[in-house]
Amino acid sequence: LRLRFFTGSLGYLLLLIFVYLAGYDQLTRQAVLIMALGVFLEICAMASDSVFQAREKVIYQTTSQIFAAFMYFGLAWFWLSQGWGLMGIVWANLASRGFRLVIVTALVAPLLRAEPLTKTPPSTSLRWLTRMALPVFIASTIGILAFKIDTIMVMAFWGKTETGIYTAGRRLLDLMILVPHMFALAVFPSLQRQHLKSGLNRESLNPMAFKAMKWILLTTVPLAMGAILAAEPMIHLLINGKDFHESITVLRIVMLGLPLISACFVGNRLILTLGLESRLIWISLTSLLVNVCLNIILLPILGARGAAISSVLSLLAAWVVYWRILNLAGLN
């Protein structure tokens, strides 16, 4: 918790300095800082998520995220209908993040009372934890940037209106990835147990890895196709305005990335199981580089649709690198 609080506070401070030096207008500064505050609350909530995963209580994490998603949609729809515009979405995001933090705090408290925290032994000091977690921290930071950089680039190329169109179409993907994310978290302890039981024999993971990949794709491919077919009524339900009609196309494009990011989640857990976490940095860098380069090419021509295409292709590039690393490690 201390480590997450420190990194979150540092990140918010750096962002605060950036938005004032960048010369954003007051409304843009307010929107960015409110969104960043939501990220900070989520960072704190993720400390409890780590406890849930260690105790194999992933259902608690899933429950909090589902309730937060319902709250987000409800508040966003209400505030948009009241004429708040994009700021309604921004405030709904912050409220849902805060609500999730309250839920996980209430759920994690009984676990900590049942097994109280003790003084940290030298072998698991904060310095040791930081050193061991550094590759994952770097990879995760770059990965988040790779996944979100397109929104920043749309703002730089086209301004707030096109950014609103893009984020409105992409928001459903951001919510639906909770499904494969929770699946990958749930299967991770089983992968670890199988790996240890086999005496760290990598080939023994092949059957479980194949099943995990099969089931996650059997779940997310129908979800993606359903969202593509129902894109128009879903966008009209969430956002009432003709200016957001292009969000329908954005939604249909980005949902093609749901099966890809699902496969990447399983690949991520397999790499962590094998102790190859430093390879995650190269995967994240590949995704970031592909996303930025494609956005530079496509954004001036296609606008929000170009950003959506770039996002999907960057996920495809990430999965190709995942596949190659796992193949070289002995997984088929």
Distance between the first and last residues' Cα: 37 Å
Unreliable runs: none
How helix-rich are the residues, as a percent range?
A: over 70%
| Structure annotation, total helices | 13
Spatial extent as radius of gyration: 20 Å
Can you give the mean pLDDT? 83
Shape: globular
Number of strands: 0
The sequence of SSEs as H and E is HHHHHHHHHHHHH
Overall SS class: mainly alpha
Q: How would you characterize the largest beta sheet?
A: none
Portion in beta strands: under 5%
Could you walk me through the main structural features you see in this protein, from its secondary elements to its overall organization?
This protein is mainly alpha-helical. 84% of the residues lie in helices and 0% in strands. Helix 1 (2-21) runs antiparallel to helix 2, helix 8 (206-229) packs antiparallel against helix 11 (257-273) and helix 12 runs antiparallel to helix 13. The chain starts with a helix and ends with a helix. The relative contact order is 0.10.
Task: Summarize the model shown.
This protein is 84% helix and 0% strand. It has 13 helices and no strands.
